[in-house]
Each structure stands twice: as C-alpha cells, then as structure tokens.
C-alpha cells in the first residue's frame, strides 16, 4: 500500500473546499476527508450557505460507520463549536468516536476561534494543526480578513499590455486580452461577493458586470458614483443582478436618488473630499452587508486610489502580449512615488496562462 502523509489528504480536502467557492459566502469554504488505513473512505465539502458543513457530509458519506472509530478526519478549517444554521460539527465528531482530527487552520470567527479544537481535546481526540496551513488560509482569505479586520478582502483586477497600458491614446480598451482571459474574469466574478467599478468605467464601457461566460451566480454590483451622474439607462441598472450605488451624502435627497430606488437600485451615502468618496467607509458599509470579498474592476484612477489608501490585498493582472506605447493610458494614475524605496511592494503568486495571456497574481506585502 502506498504510504501517504497528512499533506496528501489535506490537498484533497482543499480541492473539495474550492468546489464551494461562490456558493457558501458569508460562510467559509471547507473540505473534509475521512481516512482509514491510508484510504479515503468519505469526502465532503460545504456546498451552499445554510446547508450541511463539510465534516457532516464527509462523515455521512462513509458506507461503514463502524470504521469511524479507527479513522482520521482531515478538514481545511477548524470544526465549528456553536449552533448556527446547523449544529456544531465538533459535537458530531465526538459523537461518532473519531480518534484523530487533522486541521489546516483555525477559524477566526468569534464563536469558534479555538473552541472547536478545545472540544475535541476535551473528548480525548488527537488533534494535529497547521497541515498546509498557508494554503488553507489562502483558500479562505476573504473569510479570515473579514473576521479579523472588519473589512472585505479586496482584489484589484486589471487587463493590460506588456508596457502596462489599459487603453490606447483614444481610450479604446476592447479587447486587450483574449476570450480565455475574459472567461476567467467571469469565473472570478462568480466567486467574489461583489464587483466594483467607478462611474467613469461604468459610463465608458456601459459595463454590465454579470457572469455570462461561465456558470455561476452574479455578484453584487457596486458603483461608486459620487454625484449620481450615470444615466438611468446604463446596463448596470438592469435587473440582471442586484446593484448598490455609493454616492456623496450631499445627494441623499436628490430626485436622481428617488429615480434609482424606483428602478430597484439600492443606495448608500458616504463622505466625499474633492469629488472622491471615502473608500474606507464604502468597504465598511459592504462589510455590514456581509460582503466578504470585492473584485475591483475600475480604471487607473480608482485603482490608484485603492493602492494609495492601502486597501488592496491582491492584484490580478491579465497581461496581454501587446504594446500600446507611451501615449497609451497607464494602469495606475499617479501614486506619489518619487524614489524606489517608496514603491508599493508585492509578492508574486503562481502565474497562469489563459490562451496567449498571462495572469500575474500578487499579494501586497505587509
């Protein structure tokens, strides 16, 4: 029999966890496998918000329940210890007599945060923590940030040329990247809770911001429109997906606000300074609405604003093998960097190809 270590089984649990991406928020994605004598005898993942958790599904999938007392449960996130929409998973593990639980990372939710592990220890169950911890944290990066900072996880998405241009000198940007990249963008939209643009991008592209090139749910569409200047006929105000508009509090009682609400568009109002909305307040409002993750698809000014205010966690750059030259529109408006030491630093993730284009993923350095 092939000898397999903890990492082997945790990788399978991670694969399962990601099957729930875009379906379980505001819950975390979680995968679990039950192993007996080096063989997987049960698997499960959290499939939908309000549905059974990964541990419940994995245990229920075991054909011979008598094997559970000789088994190890691998789970990407600490089992819950509280009653929510479902009973505590830690209680079920104890009830079934599972002798060992291997956990990828701890759950930062205030109602869990070590309490699930404490229950397992109290029942005499062997617990091993931190297996593929970095990978397990990454698959729940939005959930973890939300519960540790009170703000959503923010990813900035850009499509640009090799020389860092997002449009030509005339402002044309369709299409910089190929169909494969555009399909991946739609997949990303389907797993983020919200997609955000500024008024200028919504106007110039007449962006719809829905999921059309793949299966999956539409995200909440968030538009930053300081003066409520977008035409009512804009595609982003259609009924294909929910839309939330952030505007200056000066316009809270305006006729345009009334018209938008009549079309089913939600609005909220925040502070502004020199025509720019307070992005921290915008993100705080989204957090209140249980939005864990935001994909920002803005232009150079909005992208630069998020960078300057240190509100970005990750950048996703779809890099096309093309050149627009120095008269093209740069991906970022001025950032105020005058010497190299002032640069915003990132660390690269694994690059991926989508057709001829290269997706570069980079996380902001703490």
Characterization of the model:
The chain has 366 residues and is α/β, with parallel strands linked by helices. Helices cover 27% and strands 25% of the residues. It contains eleven helices and 19 strands. The protein has helices spanning 6-17, 54-60, 89-95, 115-122, 133-139, 141-149, 179-191, 199-205, 255-262, 279-288, 300-308; strands at 31-36, 39-45, 72-77, 100-105, 126-129, 153-161, 165-167, 194-198, 220-224, 243-248, 266-270, 272-273, 276-277, 293-296, 314-320, 329-330, 346-348, 352-354, 357-364. Strands 6, 8, 9, 10, 11, 14, 15, 17, 18 and 19 form a ten-stranded mixed beta sheet that branches. A five-stranded mixed beta sheet has the order 2-1-3-4-5, sandwiched between helices. Helix 8 links the parallel strand 8 and strand 9 (220-224). Helix 3 runs parallel beside helix 4. The longest helix has 13 residues, at 179-191. The chain is globular and about 70 Å long. 42% of the residues are buried. The model has no long low-confidence stretch (mean pLDDT 92).
């Amino acid at each position: 029999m092939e000898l397999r270590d903890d990492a082997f089984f945790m990788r399978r649990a991670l694969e399962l966890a990601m099957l729930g991406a875009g379906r379980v928020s505001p819950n975390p994605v979680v995968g679990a496998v039950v192993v007996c004598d080096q063989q997987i005898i049960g698997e499960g993942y959290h499939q939908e918000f309000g549905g059974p958790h990964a541990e419940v599904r994995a245990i229920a999938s075991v054909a011979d329940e008598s094997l559970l007392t000789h088994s190890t449960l691998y789970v990407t996130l600490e089992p819950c210890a509280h009653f929510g929409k479902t009973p505590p998973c830690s209680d079920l593990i104890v009830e079934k007599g599972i002798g060992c639980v291997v956990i990828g990372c701890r759950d930062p939710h205030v109602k869990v945060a070590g309490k699930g592990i404490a229950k397992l220890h109290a029942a005499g169950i062997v617990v091993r923590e931190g297996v593929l911890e970095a990978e397990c944290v990454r698959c729940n990066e939005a959930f973890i940030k939300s519960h540790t900072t009170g703000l959503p996880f923010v990813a900035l998405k850009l499509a640009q040329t090799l020389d860092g241009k997002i449009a030509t000198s005339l402002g044309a940007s369709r299409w910089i990247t190929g169909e494969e990249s555009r399909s991946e963008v739609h997949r990303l939209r389907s797993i983020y809770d919200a997609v955000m643009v500024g008024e200028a991008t919504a106007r110039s592209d007449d962006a719809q911001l829905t999921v059309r090139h793949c299966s999956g749910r539409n995200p909440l569409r968030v538009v930053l429109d300081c003066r409520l200047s977008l035409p009512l006929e804009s595609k982003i105000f259609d009924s294909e997906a929910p839309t939330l508009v952030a505007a200056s509090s000066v316009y809270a009682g305006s006729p345009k606000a009334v018209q938008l609400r009549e079309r089913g568009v939600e609005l909220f109002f925040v502070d502004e300074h020199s025509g720019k909305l307070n992005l921290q307040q915008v993100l705080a409002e989204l957090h209140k609405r249980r939005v864990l993750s935001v994909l920002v698809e803005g232009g150079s000014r909005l992208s630069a604003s998020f960078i300057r205010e240190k509100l970005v966690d990750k950048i996703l750059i779809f890099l096309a093998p093309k050149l627009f030259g120095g008269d093209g529109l740069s991906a970022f408006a001025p950032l105020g960097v005058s010497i190299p030491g002032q640069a915003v630093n990132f660390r690269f993730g694994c690059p991926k190809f989508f057709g001829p284009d290269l997706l570069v993923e980079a996380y902001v350095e703490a």
